[in-house]
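Allow me, if you will, to draw on your knowledge of protein folds for a short while. I am sending you one protein, given as its amino acid sequence and as whole-number tokens for its backbone shapes. Kindly check, if you would, that the fold set down in the tokens agrees with what the sequence suggests. The record follows directly beneath this note:
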Amino acid sequence: MSKLDRKNQAKQIRQIKHQQNVRTTSVFAGQNGAPRIVAVVPLCHDCDTSRAIRSLNQSVGLEEPAVEGRLRVRVDRFAQNLLYVSAERDVITAMNTCRLADFVILLLSAEQEADEEAEHLIRAIEGQGVSNVLTMVQGLDSIRPAKRQPPIVASLKSYINHFFPNQDKVSSLDSDRECANIMRSLCTTTPKGVVWREDRSWMLVENTHWPESSDTLPDSREIVLTGVIRGRGLKANRLLQVGDWGHFQIDKIVDATLPTAKKRKADEMSMEVESGAIKSILDTPDGDQDDMEELAPFSETMGDDQDVVASEAPPESKGVLLDDHHYFSDDE
């Protein structure tokens, strides 16, 4: 291969990687782009997720009050949306939170050591599949004298590298500079995702609306779920699994873009957009819509199977399997 061919090949590889990066991050672009989901998981008893989120927001000039559960913020410095999801120190809760996260922040304590429960928590998160992982320590400035702080950080880094060898640093929540670097990583790094999650359509439900009154039967009531569809494209013909509620049919997929503060030519149109009167229908089911009765029919009775005698079993074919090929005798 000549020098010109090698340069051309390297250029094509760069273009392909750039296109893949643009396609992956396009869902986060714009004022109404999808938020980057950040899961905050405490590994020690004295770790406070609300205080950690407050420290991260203050490092980029945000004064959003940190609350338990979910918090969505707009980082104007990097033109990105972030959605914090606080997890509890529980295996099931942490797994449900991390399976939807683009970034997972593990909180360690500078005063308490991670116990066996924290190890089980990390193993469970790692076993189900995890995207980008960041590690932070809380309460490092309370360690005195200051010369004891570097050995503690080195010990925590050695502990987390046992589970995630790619972790090159343990950042401190007490340092505004390190918190700002973490915020930069959250807003600019491309999430690597999880294979089993990205190969299908999935959505973190941000809002649930129950109809106030319904003229239909109670079993056929409709519910409106609002969120950003990630992964594969969602078709209205497919069945939708909603958590532990089960599978449901889709009535329609509607554009639920957040209203903007742009000036409108007509005040009436602005009022309609703000009130949600104008909604674009993206997809509706047709005659090929999936049905639970077709995909999961009830089991039939086993009476007919009991009447089958052993002599009616089909004869076995005589042959061998060699190099992934079946070879049968000439008598058949």
Q: What stands out?
A: The first strand starts at residue 36 and ends at 42. Confidence is low (pLDDT under 50) at residues 261-266, 268-277.
